[in-house]
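Provenance

Sequences were taken from public entries as deposited. Structures were produced by running a predictor on each sequence independently, with no templates supplied. The record for FtsK/SpoIIIE domain-containing protein from Candidatus Pristimantibacillus lignocellulolyticus is shown for reference.
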Amino acid sequence: MFSIAVFTVAAKSIVAASGACAIVYKGYQMMPGPAAQLKLMKLFKDGNVYKPIKRIRSNATYEVKQYPEIKRVGVYEDHTQLIFSVPDGMNPQEITSKLWLFKQGFGERIDLTGDSKTFNLEIYKVELKTFDYYLEEIKEAVKGYNLPILAGKTRKGYIVYDMCEHPHLLVAGETGSGKSVQLRSILTTLITCASDKLELYCADLKRTEFHLFRGIAKTVDIEPLHLQTTLLKINKELVRRGNLLDKHELSNINDLPESVRPKYIVLAVDEVALLKKEKVIMGIIEDISAIGRALGVFLILSMQRPDADILDGKLKNNLTVRMAFRHADEINSRITLGTGEATHIKQSQKGRFYLSLEGLRQTQAPYLDLAKAKEILAPYKRLNEPKISNTNKIIEVTDYEVLEEVSSDFIEFGVLDNDNER
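Predicted structure for FtsK/SpoIIIE domain-containing protein:
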């Protein structure tokens, strides 16, 4: 009888303890960090985010699903952070292409960044806010960068990168999305923060965006033939810089002695899609995208509607940074980003875009109106600058293969001087 009583008491104690543990575990599950971790694991399973591994047992083949591993969970005042890694051999695009999956689980206010192995998912409590362009604040933010591109702000603060490290930028978005203001902001930052080591060339084929930079840029071309002339000169400069690196047995112009180091060249082309029939122009642009980084020559290309014929494999792959403002449909968004996220930006969210740079994050561009930009850029204007080009200097070439036959009399090596606005 005694043993039965002891057993009964012990059993009741175990049941009570089990109940207490269940309550504690339930409470643990409801804490922000563990709850986010459990939700992420569920998303991996629901979205089939795993690496399949085939195993054999008793002459029968079966599949084991290896899911990403959550390395760390952090809960902060304004956001929750989840760091996870994918199994070796798993394509990281299985993560980056499924931003929609993480939004289904955690909502719209998330950022997903990472590399080929480790990813950082951040879930925020507050929405992104619009902000104005303040030059002094921006100068402070871009200190230490050779060729600073101020992309905008996330909820953590300014996003700045060095074009020398991440060459060639694509900015795309429909009318009214904020694309034009972003171009204005990016070029204004480059001019005010890197003018001593920069040569800027602009092409404004719609004649609506780059008039602001006349008298500052070396050229503002408004006709394809004028742009072709500029590009032929830049093409010769690419050859010269390559020879200079060979002479010094170096691989990047940043490593050259300062006495012979040429300035960076940035070519900004608005509505590059209008050039898709221009074989010579597109040939040189593709060459710049392929070899420009080492030679200090960089592209900023923009378009309202992404064109798959323009953004073919070679050029698209070399545009290492992309800013996708609101897109009209998922097809266009996928051409720009590889995902459909840019279609989900609301029309009311002016200046909002997805930044594709070591992952995908939602970013807010600064607002810089035209009058303020003119005021900021006034000290950089050259005086008495002609506003149209001397058309006698136009070089007409119909075939990209004959570029080397163009007379070098038209080409000025090194700093491309004495070019008027066109």
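The chain has two domains: 35-124, 135-410.
The radius of gyration is 27 Å.
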